[in-house]
Amino acid sequence: MLNLLFILFLSYLVGSIPTSIIMSKLVKNIDIRNYGSGNAGGSNVFRVLGWKYGVSVILLDAFKGVIAVIFISRLYYGSFPFPNATPFDDFTLVQFIAGIAAVIGHVWTIFAGFKGGKGIATALGFLITIITIDMIVALGVFILVVSISRYISLGSMLAAVSIPFIMVVRENIFGVDIQSYHTILPFSVAIAFFVIYTHRANLSRLLNGNENKITFSKSK
Q1: Within 13 Å, how many C-alpha atoms sit on residue 106's CB side?
Q2: What is the pTM of this model?
C-alpha cells in the first residue's frame, strides 16, 4: 500500500511541474498566468510567446504523462493491495493510476497554488502509451480542428470527445480487438467529460464568440 501511495505522490509531483510558468519565466521573465487567458497551459503559451514555445510546453507536458506511466509505475512491486476487478493485470492498473495522478498534478499543481493547465497534453502523453492508435487518430482530429478554426480549446475538446467514438468504430465496425475495450471505453468517456469540465470557461467564450484564436506567426 505504501509503495502505491509513493507512486501516486511521485506521479502527482511530476505532473505538477509547471512547465508553462517555467518557460515564460526563462523566455520573457513573465508569469504566463498574468497574460492571455491567464491559464498556465501550453495553449496560452502558444498565444502569448508564439508557436515554438507553445509546442515545446505541450510536448513537455505530454512527457510528464509518459514519465508517470512508463517509468514511475515501474517502481511498483508486489501484489495489488486491493482486489483487482478490472480486466487489466496489476501493473497496467498501476500505470493507469500513475497517469491519472500526473494529470491531476498538472491541473491542480502544488507548485502554483493548485491552479495549473487543462490537463490535455499530460493526458495525451499518458493515454498514448495505453491506446496508441486511438490517440494518434485523436491527435489528428486536434490538428485538423485547430488548423481550420484556430481555436486550441475547440480542438482539445473535440479530440477528447472523438476518442470513445474512435474506439467504438475500430472495435465494432473494423473488428479491431482493443485490449480491455469495455473498461477503457467508459474511462475515455469520463476523460472527455473531464476535458469539457476543465474547458468550461473556454466553451462559454466559444458560444459567446469571444474566444481567442491563435496565429502561427514567429515566436515573440
Answers
A1: 32
A2: 0.87
